[in-house]
Amino acid sequence: MLNDKSYQAASILMIQDPWWGRIGYDKSIDPKSINIYGTTSSPFWMCFSPPGISGPKGPGVSIYVRRDIPDLHARYSDTLPPHPDVLAIDVIYKGSRTTLVNAYLHGDSERYDESLNHLICHPYPTSHPIIIAGDFNAHHPNWALEGSKWVNNLPNPSARLLDNWASENDFHVLNDLTVPTRNGKKGQADSIIDLTLLNSIAVDAFVDFDWTCEAEGAMGSDHNIISWAIGAHDQTDAATHPKPPPTFTIDPELEEEWTNAFVAHLSNENLPSQPKTPSELDSMAVGILQAMANATEDSMPKKKQGAKSRRSPWWNSECSKALRDLKHPPDNRSRDARRACLRGAIRRARKSHADQVCKAASIGNVFRFTNWYKGKRRAPLPPIRFGGGLVTVPQQKAIALTDKFFPKATSSRVSLEPLGIPQAPERPWHNITKEEIETALASSSNTSSPGAFGTNYRLLKWAFSVRPNPILNLYNGCLTLGYHPSCLRNAVIAVIPKPNRSNMSDPKSYRPISLLETLSKCLEKVVTRRLIFEAGKFDLIPHSQFGGRDMTSCADAGLCLTHDTRTQWALGNHVNFHFEKTGIRARNLPVDPILPTRENRATENRRNSVRPNQLARGRYPPGIPLSPILSSIYSIPLLRAIQDPQALTYAYVDDFSILAFSDSHASNTTILQNIANTANNTLRALGLEFELPKSDLIHFTSRKQQPSNAQITLTHDLGTSVITPKVVVRWLGFYLDQKLNFKEHVRYMANKANAILAGLRMLADTVKGMSMRHARILFIACPKRRQTAVPSPIVRLAALSHPESEFQTPYLNPPWVPENPFPGRLQFAFPPAGSPKDRRAKIAENANRLIDALAHEGTLIGFSDGSKEVRSGVRKVGVGYSIVWKKEEVAKFSGGIGPRADIFDAEMLALALIVRRCTRFAKSHNILRIHIFSDNLAAAHTFLQGNARRSIVVQWIPGHSKIEGNERADKLANAGLDSRPTPFFNRTATWAKCAPLNAQPSHGDAYGQKPPLKNGPKTHPTSPALKLHPIFQNPSIPRSVSSRLIHVMTGHGCFGEYKARMPFINGSAKCQCGDPNQTIPHLLFHCPLAEDSRKLLFEAAPDLNPATLFGTPKGLEAVAKFIYHSGIGLYK
């Protein structure tokens, strides 16, 4: 019905006894243990079903509302509580509200009476139209079919009760008593049991109700299809669908217009340059946000409002023309022919869009395409269980979800001194730098959801690029005063449904996500980076906490758990594992006693705003950048309070785990209970609590130990909770079994891997699959670990250490220290990108003119260079520099640095040496300016720190361009080749990185010396390479052709010769031309059936030399065209 064109005229479908069946699996250890049941859904319809039904026995009613009708909205109604057989929704059309009630009274007397009582026992408002329709299974003379026996029969008590209720509550039956609603079968008489009841306001509002009842479209049912018409009316109350505020489309092409408008609006705000009070911070933050919002409103186009969804990205002008031709025929073609044209246009448009998307795909973004098959949740938010009932109004839903996710504070702010944890000494804080903000913005996504002011990271980047000082002053003012502006504390909390949940009326089936102002999130990112640095450098977080810190992961926690468990098994102990999840209860969490820095105080007292279908109010909501590190900091007292010699603790952010070991499982449960009670008391003092429903227990047993059923009884404010042991538990993404052999984990992951392999097989199909390039990208992206952050140079150098050594994060440079601490005085003059060779002379001429000018100014001028040669099979690397002051050489150096270095290392070392020498000479001769001609820097910071008037310029110049100083440095570097190497280092990072590249020539030589394969020397004239060949990156070659090209090169394909060697492949080895042996050389060079296509091969290689055809891009392209036109290698 939802996709049948017979029902295209229907806007609302009220269905009794809908289909109900399994639609998925709940998230569990065993995917087949819990089924998820539901009814039919469609992207074009909103589905309303009675909430709270999770079993195989489904509801009796459902309602579908079409999505593509402008000004038509629908929601669950608060007129009548939901019931499995009675469902009420509010339909709002053009601002007028109408309540529709779908009823299906059936079953035995007990169920029938329960459904009837639910329908008639609740009061109905008289402020707006109400329509009750459905199958009542009741006969009464007042609605009996004319001429039937029910006109004179005495009705049963249920029918009399329904008739009396309708009369007393002013409901009228609008059925046509001459038309039956149910057709009798097997000797039964026709009757009217499907009723349409309207209150008086509905009768007055819908004069043209047009009630009809027809058998057409009933799909074999004995009940006829009843239809009627409703529309906009003025008989309504003030409760209408809220109109959303206007939103805007952020167009990157309008960046200049937006920045101009932002600068103009910001200049009118009169922001203080240095805020000194909290009120000034408030006004400054509001001014920046308001200027950004006004600039967006002035320069960006508005999004279209209404129920109409956004146009699909693949839709093009051809689709629009085909759709117009279907609606308004320009010729006498049939409707089926025009519909076929529309389907063809859509198919071509989708293929073209997919080709464009695949063309721009890379390893970094290929995983975004997995969201295509997941679809989008389009069902409305169902009623939520709250206070023993169900709430339907959006504001009430927000209150219910707020009460679940953000409970009110039950304890006041306390000190941590009674817990035995002293206060950490305060450390000096530093102003936020421009580089810190730029780093935080560079790692931010331009597509993140905006906050209440509607500004995203793209707009903040534009604003900071043109006016960085107001934002920088705001952030530093927040740190200085320890105050977070009130407008930045507001957070819109969006409710995201969790996937694969059986009961969507339970608040636990949703996840709150905070939508903060990007101006606030950027500050929190900067503070988070500083807190992570502080925690790592000063070792503030215990090592048993694996979350919220550098270089730790769930895998590390799993390895530690496995190691500790097997260690205790080796000692003959029994091991029990219990884990719980902590939840924040108080809104005033003790941040300062743990880490008393101004960064924490600047982000306190956040408030969350309430919006319909979203939720509200709490402290640190999930989704803010500070959440992981703050949760790790809050766990410090908990981890240090547990000091038991027979237990080990693990934590990952807010997941707390205990590993107990003793001589028996029963003793372990006692240890776990005592530790859990101690931990619970510690959490109460911190304003936290355990989420006991998320707690699990498992008894690890070695081969010689027997399983146990010992339970844990935990005491809390609401009473006691008993936790029973499980055979398999899920912890931090691992599936742990009692033997700790990870069989269940492997089984579960193998199922996921098989699903991925099946998808890869379908996507990389050799006939109609994706291209070779994209198949390779997909293959690399699936097994390869994705790196989400770019490491610093010092981290890259540390990664080149011994593979068995433990990686240590070098906390050398704090976040507030920029890469260039002297941006105004340490300058770099780089060459223009891609400068052609004919400009080298012009650049050299300008450099000579600049050197003469600098010499007259008294600037100290330096030239550095490096050199590398291989003499008698030995690598020699030399460095040299020359320093000139007032056109006289005042210092020089020439030396070698050994064979385990490269030219890049020589250039770097030469620059470092010349900078060190120049700084010493400049200090002794009171020289304020240094100008070095090279392409690197190293030790210039010391010189610049000594005097604020000093400055250094490092400038690139072309080599061997008749620049006197550069030629002198080159001669000194060449002279260093002959000198004895100075052991500056054992080997360099450049030398280590080049080792794999140096091994490639030897690999090629070894490949050429191998015994020739059957097709090796002909189709593989060059050795294999890691880089994909250009022929497979050509998008014009179809997938079926590129795959057959590989078949020809490898000899593994649909060829007679290959079939003869593989007995399990059916088919004849003969060629279709009659040759008894169909070989690849025969198909390429001799088969008469491909004679017309063979001219393509002659154009690339007149002598048909396989080395030319398969060893050059032109030859491979000719072979691909030959395969395409001749059709060789097709599956038969």
Question: What is the count of structural domains?
Answer: 7
Number of helical segments? 34
pLDDT below 50 for ≥5 consecutive residues: which ranges? 584-619, 935-946
CATH superfamily of the largest domain: Endonuclease/exonuclease/phosphatase
- Separation of termini? 41 Å
Quickly give the structural class.
alpha+beta
What profile does the largest beta sheet have? Answer: 6 strands, mixed
Question: What is the share of helical residues?
Answer: 25-40%
CATH architecture of the largest domain: 4-Layer Sandwich
- Over the alpha carbons, how many angstroms does the gyration radius reach? 38 Å
- CATH topology call of the largest domain: Deoxyribonuclease I, Chain A
In terms of DSSP E residues, the strand content is 15-25%
- CATH level-1 class of the largest domain: Alpha Beta
Pfam family, one: Exo_endo_phos_2
Protein name: Reverse transcriptase (RNA-dependent DNA polymerase)
Region (Disordered): 1002-1024
InterPro entries: Endo/exonu/phosph_ase_sf, Endo/exonuclease/phosphatase, RNaseH-like_sf, RNaseH_sf, RT_dom
